[in-house]
Design a protein that fits this description.
The chain is of the alpha+beta class. The protein contains four helices and nine strands; from the N terminus they run H-H-E-E-E-E-E-H-E-E-E-H-E. The protein has a five-stranded mixed barrel. The chain is globular and about 55 Å long.
Amino acid sequence: MLPLPPSQPYSEEQSSTMSQPPVSPSVLQKLYRSLTKLPLPQFINRRLTLPSITYRVTAVQLTGEDPSAPSYTYKIQASGLRPLEIALPNKLEDEAMEQGALQLVRPWHTKLLGPSAKLDATTERLLHFTMGSPFNALLLRQLLPHNEYKRTATSTLISAQPVDLGNVLKCKVRALNVV
């Protein structure tokens, strides 16, 4: 099991991080270009090509289990996201809890950027807002080092929230193959 970093209490300072002044235009431009270059989601040969923003899970801790109704509660820490708890109907496999095996994924579609083909002031504000907002994440487990993943928590709604926009800008933008 991966160790959890010491948790920090939520503060007003953290809540104001989403309203920080804009990030450098060159960094936003790089993110924008990466997002617009992603392919559209598609199924090919029983594989889903999923354009996404990935957050590496750095720690997983089993915090509770209910033997009467199979339910396992986990505390998860992912780089760039606030710590979150999820309840799963099945226990995570030991291999899934190894360092780097799990990813929290924000599915992406180019329509989230609006109709603009370039990064203008409106699109920049939309990008700031979208990237800093909470989102429904997928928990994926890497199967092979060839960019193949399998969805782990298929029946669980996972709400994730970025720590701040600066951390979001450090995440990986890529298309994953989900089998």
